[in-house]
Amino acid sequence: MDNGNLPKHGNYGCGIDIGGSGVKGAIVDMDTGEFVTDRIKIETPQPATPEAVAETVAHIVQELGWDGRVGICMPTVIKDQVAHLAANIDDSWVGTNVHELFSQHLPGRKIAVLNDADAAGLAEVAFGDEAARTGATLFLTFGTGIGSAFITDGVLFPNTELGHMYVGKKEAEHQASSAVRDREELSYKQWAKRVDKVLKEYERLFNPSFFVVGGGISRKADKWVPYLTVDTPVIPAQLRNRAGIVGAAMAVAKDVTP
Ligand code: BGC
């Protein structure tokens, strides 16, 4: 990859998305939400301890040839810049001051760290389907877990963790994540029935204007969204695997630091 041609005068940002299997980063055009470099992906180190992951993040930023502010998102609650929950990451993150951690590995940079679904939701609302730009949007991402972001007129209410809400006898993400679909070898129709049940519960309690559904599975939206019977309109996410990176870059540019 050659990022030597990165134009010098654009309104750019750097976003990093830390996931269970990969740490991904790119330079983003903040006016369009498009990448201006290739996306760099490095396998998440195992065990995915804070130190090991922070080293990987610093490595990606260096590879991107970027010396400005960095936005980082990850699958955990980030409150006052401390990681609080570790459903799908190493337990050693709990209690880590992520701002301090990443600042040590990227000295002198402005850093913002936020939840991965919150980042992806911010990006989708800004650059995805126009319908979701105004009003109360509930963004959901279906992957290893279920991530959620409440966004009203572009403003985020962070750390909502609706994937861990009980729907019937189980947490939503234990019955309707896309990892569960793979594990139980469910057809799209069977899986959509489970997603529908979860969405109906969210609808009953939160009454959003729209659901925006993302994650890798949003690429196949035509295979399962038509089976949903929930009343609230369901909009497939458009940025797909770009969303976390773009949203993380937006968070540091806009000072969103939950
Ligand atoms: C985590 C959330 C995350 C979601 C999607 C859940 O298990 O608790 O913080 O946003 O997975 O990655």
From TrEMBL:
SUPFAM superfamilies for the chain: Actin-like ATPase domain
Entries under Pfam families matching the protein: ROK
Cited CDD domains: ASKHA_NBD_ROK_PPGK
Listed name of the protein: ROK family protein
Organism: Corynebacterium meitnerae
InterPro entries xref list: ATPase_NBD, ROK
Family label: Belongs to the ROK (NagC/XylR) family.
